[in-house]
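Encode chain A's predicted structure.
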Amino acid sequence: MVNHVKNFKLRGFTLIELMIAMAVISILLSVAVPQYNKALVRSKETILRQNLFTMRNVIDEYTYDKGKAPQTLEDIVQAGYLRKVPVDPMTGTDQSWKIIMEDPSNTVDQSEPGIFDVRSGSDKTSLEGTPYAEW
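Encoded structure for chain A:
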């Protein structure tokens, strides 16, 4: 059997070719990573908007049905309006919600003012420039 290795030239990548390939990859990553991070923040903002909308509707339904506002978010869960308190996507916990209590002079039961509104407990600012705690 004839050894064909003599006619076959082993050839690899040169250092210049590897450097050019790495430069192209780093340029692509420098464009893609910020876009990816922005997409993640947008998805968290969408989840936050939906969670706030749902909790505000449930607070209103609870208040209408029971004749008084809930004292805690856990009251809404125990009454069956929610399965569990949703997680604030900006803080990663369900314990950070900022509760806004109603004005006692405007409540049906003035001795027990309850939850009027709920907001994110995050101190971060949205992509639009507004703090999440003001949504």
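The CA atoms of residues 62 and 124 lie 30 Å apart.
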